Amino acid sequence: YRRRFCDLFAVGTVADIVPLLGENRVLVKSGLDELPRSGKKGLRALIEVARLSGRTVNSQNLAFVLAPRLNAAGRMGDASVALELLLSRDDAEALELAEKIDAQNRERQSEQERIVEEALSQIEERGLCKKYKVLVIASQGWHPGIIGIVASKITERFSRPAVMVAVDKAGEMGVGSARSIEAFDLFNSISRCGHLLERFGGHAKAAGLSISMENLPEFTSAINRIADETLTEQDLLPQIVVDAELDLDSVTLNLAKELELLEPLGHGNRQPVFMSSGAVVLQKNRIGSAGAHLKLRLGRSGLRAVECVAFGWGNREEAFKLGSCIDLCYNIQANRFGGQETVQMVLRDARPSLTQILDVAPPGNLA
Questions:
Q1: 68 preceded by cis ω (within 30°)?
Q2: Nearest to 5 by CA among 27, 24, 36
Q3: How far apart are CA 27 and CA 45, in angstroms?
Q4: What CATH code would you report for 2-108?
């Protein structure tokens, strides 16, 4: 039984962000162990097109590599394509379907980057963060299947609730997706504005809605009146819970491998978060599609340099000037590629360093 179904259980549990606690954690662990040798042709094809063949599949691979491809089918077109893939019993058919949803995922990524940029431009140009505690942003040409992901990123970026609305071609109706912070019950707040909506549903942290565009200004005012009643400025301050502060010299491959013993990690059993102060930016490069991400090399005098990848930070490259000093929060992982293993930090957040570093060695002097 475990061999037959635990791989699918792991995929569904992690992709649907179910808490990884109790028996869920035990079964997902078994599923992750089984995935690389799964007998299901669809899963094998998906792992192949995602370039995970021959590699350990952990909860992060599943959440950020495999699950987005399965979800892309529904976001960009017909979710039944993903179902057909998982049910396929033919190698050639499975590979064809896997390649199809892989292409849909690339399309989703491109559209997502465009919508994020347009949303950020609206927020800046209209000064929305200075006016509102709840950001309500609308535009024609936004894909309804993607705005939920973007709403999450906007909420994470500005530490306040966000409602993204995709407007139809006629400019008359909008489909919205909303995400919230811990201190703001989104569903309860939207329910109080229900008379302005065609329909809505969701829970405290996420919701969906449809709205006549003539009601959007009044909805924006109404939900922000509720936010003014319930949210303080303190609630809007971004916070990251840090588990430990480390010197850069303590960020090693051995530590990354020890942290892997905590797998599976995810909702309810989060990745440990670390902090380091006074790291010097030695190198930086934009990577990924359209330079959406950053790869940094960080170091300090007398210490070796460590690689750090910052997903989605490509448009904030100027914040990392060469030779500048930063404090950062990050996760630690083992990066396995081309038969080599290295330690890698995954950036969560960064700021100009509060520590004055006076003895910075030139980059060429670092090992």
A1: no
A2: 27
A3: 22
A4: 3.90.1640.30
